[in-house]
Amino acid sequence: MLFFTSSFSPLVGNLLVTLLTFIYVFGLVALMNFCVTRFGLPQDISRKITHIGAGSIIVFLPLYNDLHWSKYLNVTIFVVWFILLLQKGFFASPDDEAVKTMTRTGDRRELLKGPLYFVIVATICGTLWYKAFPGIVAMASLGWGDGFAPIIGSRYGRWKYQILSNKTVEGSLAMFIAAFVASIFFVWLIIPSELNINRILIIALIATLVEGLSPKEVDNILIPVAAIAAANFIF
């Protein structure tokens, strides 16, 4: 594979890609904060756009040089946000960017739940399953599937159901479609040799069922766990 950083040493190249991930994530948070403050974007929508954007950070993986240990720097941004979320979850003011863009209600303590679980999962996927099929479909299902489900469900959902939390059929359908399409795209982009439509279809269905059964916040753990487990048993 050709790397845009091929003119640099592996370490320098991977450091440059890591810098891009920081620019991308902090730029996304700043953009969502601007939209919430200036245009009145609802916080629940801002939260999920940030969620989808964070899951899409794996788009940078093809730029990393796999021949050097520094490839694991891909999770640096998540480690930094793990620390930031702890700090902000306990001490941030109501007008903090993270509070306004990553919470539903403006309660800083929400940062210690879903968002914190997300960065933990992303860190694990970027190390134990670096450029591996299970990690990619887990992040795609979590980022895009779980990102779109509440956006569609809360605004267009008419057929409601409740198991451990309130869900809608429309939201679950959005979860399935988004997880399926995103998984196909990211697997094709990162490890095209492992693109298997039927396998991804089954995993997306399993992730959707788990999301429908999950209580709020905990789905950020259960969805990727289900996707990784399914990826290891379905070929």
Describe this structure in words.
The protein is mainly α and 235 residues long. The protein contains nine helices and two strands; from the N terminus they run ααααααββααα. The mean pLDDT is 91. The longest helix is centred in the first third of the chain and has 30 residues, at 10-39. The two termini are 25 Å apart. The protein has helices spanning 10-39, 43-55, 76-91, 97-102, 114-128, 133-156, 169-190, 197-213, 219-233; strands spanning 160-162, 166-168. It has a two-stranded antiparallel sheet with strand order 1-2.
Q: Uncertain runs with pLDDT below 50, 5 residues or more? A: none
Largest sheet: 2 strands, antiparallel
Tell me the distance between the termini. Answer: 25 Å
Encode the helix/strand succession as letters: HHHHHHEEHHH
Mean pLDDT: 91
Set out the fold topology:
Blueprint: H1 10-39, H2 43-55, H3 76-91, H4 97-102, H5 114-128, H6 133-156, E1 160-162, E2 166-168, H7 169-190, H8 197-213, H9 219-233
Antiparallel strand pairs: 1-2
Helix pairs in contact: 1-2, 2-6, 3-5, 5-6, 5-9, 6-7, 6-8, 6-9, 7-8, 8-9
